[in-house]
Design brief:
two-stranded antiparallel ribbon; 2 domains; 301 residues; 19% strand
Length: 301
């Protein structure tokens, strides 16, 4: 071939290997046909191998070669994108992230002191009437920690047991009168032991309306709400996971009951409410389902 700077030896005969088919040869022929060039028709079940020195390809073959290189490059990039997406994808059942609001660091929870567990168990009661003296930020910190606080930073275990350590619960608090904390709705962030602002202003009256006008919700200094994200657990356990979410919510609620009693506070578990209205008032995510409302206040006397 003139001007190619390659050997002028004649093309040696093809040798067919009936066991397999040369993919590159097939691609060259197929892409050549697509681009208007002649196609190399490989016999069925045969693979062609050139023997000897391969001469420079004609212009059409060079075009085919470029098309093959381009195809392989594109496929390689697509493969890399798929792998990268898989690595970046959240785990099955991972929580949907909310837009971040202002965060407040809570006082460190106490892990020592207080009343004996036997005494707390013996004196725990459901309380619907509360004194006017508001609880403090340290009280709220302790209650939220009791519900879902982290007790093992390495393994991220929490105060309430969770099937598969998947932690499908989200804890909100509607604050009306808590010392050193503006009124509003906050979401608890267990890993950082912080609360994040979700809704500004006092929503207790609206929340009471969503709870069939139960007065304890409006009269309480604050209302803790426990929500469940079923998908975090059903992703591993199937429909049985829904039961595990309910069980875990009960564990967290009992922790709140006992911690409140230990602090001289009162609470009551409420399950009679309009789910959609509670979600709206508290600014919950679409995949979060409210399971408990627990009004909080100081016990009278």
């Amino acid at each position: 071939m003139k001007g190619c700077g390659t050997s002028s030896k004649a093309l040696p005969p093809l040798k067919a290997d009936a066991a397999s088919q040369d993919i590159a040869t097939f691609l060259l022929g197929h892409l050549g046909e697509e681009s208007g060039h002649s196609k190399i028709p490989p016999p069925r079940g045969a693979r062609y191998k050139y023997q000897g020195v391969r001469p420079a390809p004609p212009e059409g073959d060079r075009t085919n070669t470029l098309l093959v290189i381009l195809t392989i490059t594109v496929l390689g990039l697509v493969g890399l994108m798929v792998v990268f997406s898989a690595l970046q994808a959240p785990e099955v059942g991972a929580p949907e992230k909310k837009s971040e609001g202002a965060q407040i660091q809570l006082p460190a929870p106490k892990e020592r002191g207080g009343r004996a567990i036997e005494e707390v168990l013996a004196t725990r009661r459901s309380v619907r009437d509360y004194a006017e003296t508001p609880p403090g930020l340290d009280d709220l910190s302790q209650l939220l920690w009791a519900a879902q606080g982290v007790t093992d930073e390495l393994r991220e275990f929490r105060t309430a047991p969770s099937a598969g350590a998947l932690y499908p619960l989200e804890v909100y608090v509607a604050v009306g009168e808590v010392t050193d904390l503006p009124a509003g709705v906050y979401r608890y962030l267990p890993a950082e032991h912080r609360i994040e602002s979700v809704v500004e202003g006092d929503v207790r009256r609206d929340l009471s309306g969503a709870a069939l006008n139960q007065s304890a919700v409006e009269d309480a200094a604050a209302v803790i709400a426990i929500a469940g994200v079923y998908e975090r657990t059903t992703g591993k356990y199937g429909e049985r996971g829904v039961r595990y979410v309910y069980m875990e919510a009960g564990h967290a609620a009992q922790n709140i009951y006992l911690q409140a009693t230990s602090l001289g506070l009162g609470t009551v578990s409420i399950g009679a409410f309009d789910d959609d209205e509670v979600k709206r008032v508290l600014g919950m995510n679409e995949d979060e389902r409210p399971l408990y409302l627990m009004p909080i206040g100081r016990v009278e006397g």
